[in-house]
Design a protein that fits this description.
The structure is a homodimer of 327-residue chains.
Chain A (H helix, E strand, L loop, with lengths): L5 H8 L3 H9 L5 H14 L5 H7 L5 E6 L5 H16 L3 E6 L4 H14 L3 E4 L5 H7 L5 E4 L9 E5 L1 H14 L5 E6 L3 H17 L4 E5 L5 H10 L7 E4 L2 H13 L8 E5 L13 E4 L2 H17 L7 E4 L2 E3 L9
Chain A binds a DNA duplex (30 and 30 nucleotides) through helix 2 and helix 4.
Chain lengths: 327, 327
DNA sequence: AATCGCCGTGAAAACGTTTTCTTACGGTCA
DNA sequence: TGACCGTAAGAAAACGTTTTCACGGCGATT
């Protein structure tokens, strides 16, 4: 009565519900009947009930994407790439945002299980999900971050190499007191920090790596502390795009003009091209990460028992500004 | 067998499936039984099947959010606000991205119907959805844009007033040849253009309003054309955040330095604070838009036959830079 | 003290599909 | 020409939950 279902269509077309189902699924059906069904569908304005469909046929045709910070353009780019890849394969995407909160991450992973999604692509917040991923009912591919010991499918940026590239570049430009700001909550931050430490040590430079908590104002505080040093740094590396902007804002607030430290960072966001005469940074292959993660997920679904693998992609150093020095 | 369901939990707890269901739903149940059920749930690792739940109880507890461009930070901010509001009410959000493509919009609206979502919040691409929204099975609240004649629930920015503020401000700063770039695909662009035209006419200024198609490179081309005028504009207004950045990029590319036109625009994105010494713009009350849209949607669900209403929110003029002139 | 209503429980129906399972129909091969 | 096989359609079961229905027990009202 209220809503019209497959039985109504069947009645209108003079066939059985099974035939309607088969027609809609594109299976073999007598052409005449198919035409009748299609006409009936049009006429009745029938809309399939996805909940019922998913309940019966155990395939939901849906994958979950859980990111750590939707405001971070890196993750929105990932989201777009993943959605595009899914769309091309006729899959739906459910997007969730944890805001770097492990509790929300747990909640959303649980929700994904309840949704009976086919698979999950996850940018984890900490090590905890590693354990969890193991006893999870659904296949998971990690992106951007991966806990150290874990045995997971993952597609990552080579963070150590990326940090090294930045340090090497700055060193080649003549900077010697290079400080780094790294996210405290993410594995990514740790790895970039490790690369930074290794590179500075190799070059015989003094290292100053600061861990920055996730939250407003934190980065600004750390920058202020750095500038207050007896021998303030002549170059700053920011561990991601959001932090990079905060660094610039902090430097502006401190009135550091031409004499201020040079800056470099991660994530090729559109604005980085026009600010401070262009800022030098590591560009992540976002499209590729999204596509690779989706491909890996589908592989896993196809071969549940194959050994897990980690794909590591390289970043691209983009040099901007005269010498990567602020205008 | 494969998956464990409510019957298994019931068996483990020594009660009927109905009691398990009632316990999980938080209805009145004998405390002893409740405890037994909760223990059984923990012990069995039971995960409810949301598809089955949604099928039986007609309420999906889900709303759809369809935005026009997920890369536009305005829309990601909206997404966050809506999700937050939904989360607080125990609702789920499905996020879709049309990329300004009416065909995808149609597709997603249809999908929302099939998903049996409780309601939809939609940032439409063109006039077409207006007609469509009328015969849609699900309540729709429009945001950011609304077709002219339509009778819809909508929460909008007062675009005419916002444009007027910008023109007035620039005029007060002494600019006289103010040109504007407005999105060609959206209603919002048209309205902001209308406000611009009215304001310039009132002030007796020459108007030059250009319609910019959605796509890469389009804005840059228009800016180049403007600069090539016999009397190039001394100020530019960009109709949204993405366009604003493209304008700056184009000006940089053209080598327009101190002598170049002043710029102003819409959307208070983080980077606008640090580029060109800060750019003057209209900030939209994003949180409020998202919250209001959600509230309006819930009202509509509660009172399906109440008359539709449009809430118009005001933008806030943020003046940056010395005189909103480029450094 | 007996009855009326209320509350909580279990059995069973229902939600709208898809997917067996069964059956009928032709066509092909022996 | 008869048996056999593949194909396609219809009947009915199944998916996992919520909700109605009927019933039994208990406290309150008369």
């Amino acid at each position: 009565m209220g809503t019209i279902g497959i039985r109504d269509v069947a009645k209108a077309a003079g066939v059985s519900p099974a035939t309607v189902s088969r027609t809609l699924a594109g299976r073999a059906v007598d052409p005449a009947m198919r035409a009748a069904v299609e006409a009936a569908v049009r006429e009745t304005g029938y809309r399939p009930n996805l909940a019922a469909r998913r309940l019966r046929s155990r395939d939901t045709g849906t994958i979950g994407l859980i990111v750590a910070d939707i405001r971070n353009p890196f993750f929105t780019a990932i989201a777009r790439a993943v959605e595009e890849a899914a769309y091309a394969r006729g899959l739906r995407v459910i997007l969730c945002n944890t805001d770097e909160d492990p509790a929300r991450e747990t909640l959303y992973l649980r929700l994904m299980e309840e949704e009976r999604v086919t698979g999950v692509i996850l940018a984890p917040t900490r090590e905890t999900p590693a354990v969890r991923a193991a006893d999870l009912a659904v296949p998971v591919v990690l992106i951007d971050r991966s806990p150290p010991g874990g045995d997971h499918d993952a597609v990552l940026l080579d963070n150590r190499a990326a940090s090294t590239m930045l340090v090497d570049h700055l060193h080649a430009q003549g900077y010697t007191r290079i400080a780094g700001l790294f996210g405290a909550t993410s594995m990514t931050g740790h790895e970039r920090r490790a690369g930074y430490l290794a590179a500075t040590a190799r070059l015989g430079l003094a290292a100053d790596a600061r861990a920055v908590p996730h939250g407003p104002g934190e980065t600004e505080a750390v920058v202020a502390a750095l500038l207050a040093r007896a021998d303030p740094p002549d170059a700053l590396i920011a561990s991601n795009g959001v932090m990079l902007l905060s660094v610039i804002r902090a430097l502006n607030a401190a009135g550091a003009g031409q004499a201020g430290p040079a800056i470099a960072g991660f994530d090729n966001e559109p604005w980085t091209e026009v600010v401070c005469g262009g800022v030098t940074l590591i560009e992540q292959p976002v499209e590729q990460i999204g596509g690779e993660a989706m491909a890996m997920l589908l592989d896993r679904l196809h071969q549940p028992d194959a050994s897990r693998r980690t794909v590591m992609l390289g970043g691209r150093l983009i040099v901007r500004g005269s010498t990567a020095r602020r205008e």
